[in-house]
Amino acid sequence: xxFMGVAGxxxxxxxxxxxxxxxxxxxxxTTVVPGTVTTTGSSDPTFASLLDNASGGQxxxxxxxxxxxAVVADAKKYLGIPYVxxxxxxxxxxxxSSLVQRAYADLGIQLPRTSWEQAKAGQPVDSLTDAKPGxxxxxxxxxxxxxxxxxxxxxxxxxxxxxxxxxxxVYERPTAIRRVVTDATxxxxxxxxxxxxxxxxxxxxxxGVPYGDLFVKAGTKYGVSxxxxxxxxxxxxxxxxxxxxxxxxxxxMQLMPSTAKGLGVDNAFDPEQAIFGGAKLLAGNLREFKxxxxxxxxxxxxxxxxxxxxxxxxxxETQAYVPKVQKAxxxxxx
Length: 334
Description:
single chain, endopeptidase fold (from Nostoc punctiforme), alpha+beta, 6-stranded antiparallel β-sheet, 9% strand, 13 helices
């Protein structure tokens, strides 16, 4: 039996408290119902509300294409991040359940926050022999630790205080194995696309707006309002894909070359790449700042400036930019 350590004891206490209150309060202050899995595109309620308000329902797109291997690949992005009990911010650290939650949220699947709740999500898997990459492994009774199975008796996890996110052997028999991503789930979610709210189909209320279909696709993938993306493009470039600013920002979404590279955008002048890159950037800003004005300010001036000044930076351009985008969003019915 592996020694739990202080963090494990604290986690066990939290789990017992949560079991006494089935509708637990997550780390972000929201109520989480055990065993639920939603597809908002992010664990951040700001994301969910933006998408709901813009499209009339939660996103179903992309979920059907998620695989266990994709979950594993995403989780590996966090290798080396220190274990910090209770933290959901990778820049500060992650604990075991926030690592699992974030790996799935990055792919558009929202899981409960705590380890014992995650041990009830999805469908049960009989044994480790039947486990597949991406499955959630839970340990302890009550559950106090979770990890993501990689295959070959290995998992990726954030073990305990003093350690970091790493790949390790499955050190003991899991008390629960849960499969969130299954072939049946993919088929069911694809079938659900046929009965999505009308606002999620076609151009999602962006008829007549250039590249409306791309705004919908990118917004659906990253959990950002398509109308918000369209509003940003309107203010940034006037919907001109070949626009170049004096500072060197390029394309529809006016991405700086270094920013575009970090977002995986090879050609900022390509409308599809630009819009998907801008959506990814906005999604990160919204997740970090949990405020639309601050997310827009970060898009214009950079997240560092927003943090430095503790709000919208005192730059004339940024001060004017935020209300311009909000006005454009309102004009689109957002």
